[in-house]
Task: inverse folding
């Protein structure tokens, strides 16, 4: 696990999101020890655009809104990827967010 690089910690944790689940920018920020950095998590995921190893489509805002969809190729690409994993999206919002929400584990920087 990356020790110091914020973006690399975001990418590491994003890769852990299980298929068919979503998490939030804020949950990732909290898990990597920067609870007030949800927006920077979004910047990191935007910077990963095109990297198929980082499932950025599984990260939504705290209300389940697809706020990052503008950073995908095509305006419906993020929604299509989420729906392909069996998650319903209506009006740009994950339906039944509690059912599909994945709480990331807190990462230790001591390792």
Result:
């Amino acid at each position: 696990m990356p020790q110091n690089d914020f973006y690399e910690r975001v990418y590491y944790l994003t890769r852990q999101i299980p298929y068919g689940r979503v998490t939030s920018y804020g949950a990732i920020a909290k898990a990597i020890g920067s609870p007030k950095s949800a927006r920077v998590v979004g910047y990191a995921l935007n910077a990963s655009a095109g990297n198929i190893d980082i499932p950025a489509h599984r990260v939504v805002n705290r209300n389940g809104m697809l706020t990052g969809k503008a950073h995908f190729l095509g305006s419906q690409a993020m929604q299509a990827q989420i729906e392909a994993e069996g998650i319903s999206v209506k009006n740009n919002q994950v339906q039944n967010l509690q059912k599909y929400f994945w709480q990331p584990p807190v990462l230790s920087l001591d390792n």
About this structure: Strands lie at 23-24, 59-60, 89-90, 93-94. The helical segments are 6-15, 25-31, 38-47, 77-84, 97-100. The chain has a mean pLDDT of 92. The radius of gyration is 13 Å.
